[in-house]
Amino acid sequence: PPLSRVLSLWDIEDIAHEVLSHKAWAYYSSAADEELTNDENARAFSRIFFHPRVLREVSNCDPSTTILGFKSSIPVFVSGAALARLGHPLGEANITRGASRAGIIQMVSSNASLSYAQIAEARLTPDQPLFFQLYKHRDDKIAEQRVREVIALGYNAIFLTVDAIVAGNRERDVRAPFELEEQEREGSEDDVQGDRSEKNEADLLGTAGALVANDDLDMTWERTIPWLRSITKLPIVIKGLQSVEDAVLAAEAGVDGILLSNHGGRQLEYSLPCIDVLYRLRKQRPDVFDKLEVYIDGGIRRGTDVLKALCLGAKAVGLGRPFLYAQSAYGEDGVVKIVDILQREIVRGMRLLGASKVQELVPEMVEQVNWQPL
Ligand code: FNR
After folding, report:
1. The pLDDT of residue 106 is above 80
2. Is 263 an active-site residue?
3. What separation in Å is there between the alpha carbon of 129 and the centre of ligand 1?
4. Per-residue H/E/C for 245-311
5. Which helix (H) or strand (E) holds 318?
6. How many CB atoms lie within 10 A of CB 287?
7. Cα separations (Å) of 369 from 53, 131, 314?
8. 241 phi and psi, to 5 degrees?
9. Which of 86, 236, 274, 341 has the most crowded Cβ, counting Cβ within 10 A?
10. 63 with 80: CB under 8 angstroms?
């Protein structure tokens, strides 16, 4: 369908499902075990309701903000997700150009399918900010080289991912190559079962497992954060933090931000939805929000989801799959379209909530509701 018929981020997901290869859909959409945390990431937003304020001036409504000091047209960034070229030949560059046109910031995955230099070159202007998502190699020297490479290329912040030291169990992703083989063999007499047992161990890891095979399982607060700080003066954000306790440690460690995230439900099944972790942090340790910027990602698909996070003190939110889906189906125009949809939803929501700028979104405007029978 033409882009003009795409009304919501859910539409983009449906269209991507149709156009993506079986393997790409399995890799992009899958999550750990029963995929319950992934489903719940989105559903958790439906347990939070608004207390809107009325009779306020909202004709001039500005949804822009800054993230680590960099301007963003809406409080949304692209969370780094691997292998954009599985969905479209131009891959990550679609997101770079789309983000530039839409005025938002892209976080580039360590496992991008274009080189970090090619992505930097895809920028439409030399001052377009780019964030880098770091998977730390277990060899400090190799990890350091990777960081130095992106610093030299002009990347503007490092998001250290800490929730994926081993790959989550994504069975749809692991199964995809076998299913492909079975389809190709349909009608033949070959014993598929026999072939399957000959698959080597790498295949059983799925795409995800192969990508993080060299990661450092022994990262610690004491060693890894000072190590990264000694290499770069760029802002450091910890991505994949999931508890109030660790948020407090992050503030003590002096990092610039934390991204509360369960990796889109792809890692530890039964991790709490990110909005619930944010809710707890806001309630238990509001002081943390004064010491660093707090972001969330996972299951954010509507402008109201973004507004709920901002009311609870998030500076911005990240989206992963929607950007992969959009660039797969429509290239860079799809990326621009998603931001356009979110922008309209955010501005409409702010006006109906009685907020004309993001600073006016406050905790008093939201409430977590436990449905009780009367
Ligand atoms: C990811 N994510 C991810 N995170 C990261 O730190 N490094 C990576 O390379 C990847 N790769 C990746 C691939 C794919 C296909 C997905 C779906 C996700 C996690 C990503 O940054 C983000 O946390 C989630 O995607 C957010 O959830 P939603 O928006 O996809 O629901």
Report:
1. yes
2. yes
3. 20
4. HHHHHHHHHCCCEEEECCHHHCCCCCCCCHHHHHHHHHHHCCCHHHHCEEEEECCCCCHHHHHHHHH
5. strand 316-319
6. 9
7. 18, 35, 20
8. -80, 140
9. 274
10. no
Q: Catalytic site residue 163? A: yes
Ligand 1 pocket check: which of 17, 43, 79, 107 to mutate, most ligand atoms within 8 Å of Cβ? 79
Which pair of structure tokens corresponds to residue 44? 């958790």
57 CA distance to ligand 1 centroid (A)? 38
**Region for residue 91 given its phi and psi (left: phi exceeds 0; alpha: psi -120 to 50; beta: otherwise):** left
**pLDDT score of 204:** 58
Tokens 């899958």 label which residue? 30
DSSP string, 16-85: HHHHS-HHHHHHHH--STT-HHHHHHHHGGGGEEE----S---SS-B--EEETTEEESSSEEEPP-S-GG
Ligand 1 centroid – CA 373 distance (Å): 37
Decide: 44 and 299 in contact? Cβ < 8 Å. Answer: yes
Question: Taking a C-beta distance cutoff of 8 angstroms, is the pair 76, 339 a contact?
Answer: yes
pTM above 0.90, yes or no: yes
Predicted ipTM > 0.90: yes
Answer yes or no: are the C-beta atoms of 165 and 216 closer than 8 Å.
yes
151: closest CA among 136, 131, 135, 137?
Answer: 131
Instruction: Supply 361's token pair.
Output: 């979104």
Residues lining ligand 1, CB < 6 A? Answer: 27-28, 41, 79-82, 109-111, 133, 161, 239, 261, 263-264, 266, 297-300, 319-321, 324
Hunting for tokens 């095979």 — which residue is that? 213
pLDDT digits (tens, 9 = 90+) for 276-313: 999 999 999 999 999 999 999 999 999 999 999 999 99
